[in-house]
Design brief:
There is one protein chain. With 149 residues, this protein is an alpha+beta fold. The protein folds into 2 domains: 87 residues, no CATH class; 44 residues. The chain is built from 2 helices and 5 strands, in the order E-H-E-E-E-E-H. It has a 5-stranded antiparallel beta sheet with strand order 1-5-4-3-2, covered by helices on one side. Strand 3 and strand 4 form a beta hairpin. The protein is elongated and about 80 Å long. It starts with 10 loop residues before the first strand and ends with a helix.
Length: 149
């Protein structure tokens, strides 16, 4: 249950990579070209940033990725030299929604008002109908007793 409140890592939905032999460029130029092309398209709500991920373990070098995000969807692109070749990779992921404790409490408080209002309204309607029904029948019963008694 507590995992519901913790920030989670992105769930990778798709991943691909390609090695281009005997090719070379700088990662900075590659990322700037992509950024310019996306800015020309004017994608609404698109945020572009740079993030660093470890190449391997904790002590390994970090590799810079170009991150394009919109709402909870993330697209990470990497371009890096690999010997005499060049390595390209893309990762498409979704960042899970994280609900804060205060948001859950607010939701419970608002929904509890509705849950309490429904029985009170239902009881009032049914109670007033049954009360008038009992009142009518009680009157008839008393009249019968007087006639017979």
């Amino acid at each position: 249950m507590m995992e519901f409140f913790r920030s989670k890592r992105a769930d990778v939905l798709s991943h691909w990579y390609s090695l281009v032999p005997n090719f070379g460029t700088s990662a900075k130029e590659f990322y700037e070209t992509i950024e310019r092309a996306l800015q020309e398209r004017k994608v609404p709500g698109l945020e572009i940033s740079r993030v660093e991920f470890s190449e391997g373990g904790i002590l390994s070098d970090k590799r810079e990725y170009l991150r394009m995000s919109r709402e909870r969807l993330v697209f990470d692109v990497c371009g890096a030299p690999f010997g005499t070749s060049y390595f390209f990779s893309c990762r498409f992921a979704e960042i899970p929604a994280v609900i804060q404790l205060w948001q859950l409490l607010l939701l419970l408080r608002k929904s509890s008002r509705n849950l309490l209002a429904y029985p009170m309204t239902f009881h009032f309607c049914v109670g007033s109908c049954s009360h008038s029904f009992r009142k009518r029948n009680t009157k008839n019963v008393r009249t019968r007793w007087r006639i017979h008694g």
